[in-house]
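Researcher: Structure for this, please.
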Amino acid sequence: MLILPIVNKNRVLNVRVKLKGTEKIRSAIKFPGAPESDVIVNGKKLSESHSFDSREKNATINFIRNNSILYPRNFLVTTRMVADSDVYDVYEVGQPPRKINDSLDELYDLALTDIRKEIPGIKRGRYLSFKKIGLDEVLTDEKIQMLERIVGDVKDSSQWPGLFEKAGIGDLPKILDFLNNFDCTVVEHTSIKEEDVEHIITTLEPLCTRETRNFISYYNTAMVNRDIYGKLSYINKLLYGRPLSLIQSNAQRQKQLVKTSDTELEYTRNVA
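Model: Predicted structure, token format:
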């Protein structure tokens, strides 16, 4: 599971992030000529391409796009083998969206890698940091300030796209569109009160153990993810009059979990 830890309303939530349009089509099977943990696009295999061992950033999504130019169809992803066997699960995945920036492509790559590294029957989580993929670097205070100015000064929203491009912030609404390709669902019964987290850190910090350092890193990641998500939500409200509803509960997908007041308070623009 790809897990986004995030602070919201004095609690640390764990949010599962996965690609929309992904469907498991086979379980415990082995396709002839299709290895485990592979991506197959129009008959082309990632495992047989230069991208497989490439150190190039986002090589997997580039492989998918390059082999989908003529025929942009759904593609297949195989998981790792089931423990003590030679079979795996197979997923069908929809085409990736157009590239906006490297950060979002890395997010897509991570979600795809999460499928490829899945071992059927075994739960294993991997943490997602918005900062590590560089999302904070494309959501600068200067760009948000420019967005505020245009939206505040020009009431005719039909003029906004052209003005955004001219001001160099045309990527902001596109970032939101890209993120709509992901399901972000709170994992039930895994939230922790923020005060409890801080108490644990205060108690264990003198030990200087690896577990303590990992827990501190987890909490710091959750706080930074909160701040970056707050920016995204604020941008969404400027553009569409409502906060971002990317993160939702499992029981009520239509009900926004991170509410307007929270995300507005989380984001404070620091522009000199």
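Researcher: Any notable elements?
Model: The chain has a mean pLDDT of 91. Residues 210-240 form the longest helix (31 residues).
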